[in-house]
Design goal:
mainly alpha, Arc Repressor Mutant, subunit A, Four Helix Bundle (Hemerythrin (Met), subunit A), 2 domains, 11 helices, 2 strands, about 80% helix
Length: about 250
């Protein structure tokens, strides 16, 4: 009995490790639902009892949650534990925005370099799809869709590095500054010349990664973040000017 239980325990541990790896590498993302138990057991070549035990292990770690009538869902724990406190801090201390952009400059430059060096054919196909979806939204007035596609493009680069920390840190940072990115893109969208610059910057990153030119990819990514940083400063200034004008209008009224 002990020997049988040890074997079953080993199988459950192996399954849990397999699923954890998928979560870490981004194959399973927050909000994704695991396949039905029968399908997943068949895919992994295991029986259902050790699969259930493996899922319980992941649930105890907070990586998945099982909901009646819905199934087993991947949680955002790996990102939320980073995001939640920093979102609160950013709201209370807006000057942190500059520090976050400085970190993005470093992180995304290295991510683009590594993606150029390490991306597989499958990674490049995913990056191509993300870039195509992003360029489609540039020609439309669907700003919310453009913001979503922008995030997906940068995330595809991060995951093409095959460094799980870069992948999860990029996702976390983009969540932390989502509101600021949204406001900045709205500002740029109203200025066609600057909007075209954003388009050209993303193209430069995409082309450099495809060319396997790590140095060029890093330069293009950093130039993009520098532009974002400068435009965010101008966005904040424009907001201050509007508020000042409204206050004067209120006084004059």
């Amino acid at each position: 009995m002990t020997r049988f239980r040890s074997a079953a325990q080993h199988i459950a541990d192996t399954i849990a490790t397999n699923l954890e790896t998928r979560i870490l590498e981004g194959s399973l993302k927050p909000g994704d639902r695991l396949p039905p138990e029968r399908e997943l057991a068949a895919e992994l070549g295991v029986s259902r009892p050790p699969l259930r035990e493996a899922i319980q292990k992941l649930a105890l770690k907070g990586l998945v949650v099982t909901r009646h009538g819905v199934g087993t869902i991947v949680t955002d724990r790996l990102e939320a534990t980073f995001v939640d406190p920093w979102e609160d801090m950013l709201q209370g201390h807006p000057t942190l925005q500059a520090d976050i952009l400085e970190f993005r400059h470093m992180l995304e430059g290295q991510a683009a370099r590594l993606a150029a060096q390490r991306a597989t054919d499958a990674d490049l196909q995913r990056l191509d799809a993300a870039y195509a979806a992003l360029t489609d939204t540039y020609e439309s007035d669907e700003l919310i869709a453009n913001i979503d596609r922008d995030v997906e493009f940068h995330q595809a680069i991060a995951e093409a590095t095959h460094n799980v920390l870069i992948g999860h840190l990029t996702a976390s940072l983009l969540r932390v500054i989502h509101g600021h990115v949204s406001g900045n893109l709205e500002y740029l969208h109203a200025r066609p010349a600057q909007w075209r610059q954003i388009m050209a910057q993303h193209r430069a990153i995409w082309e450099a990664i495809h060319a396997r030119d790590g140095d060029a990819a890093a330069r293009a990514a950093r130039a993009h973040i520098d532009f974002v940083r400068e435009s965010m400063v101008e966005t904040a200034r424009a907001a201050d000017r509007r508020e000042s004008a409204m206050r004067r209008l209120g006084v004059e009224a």
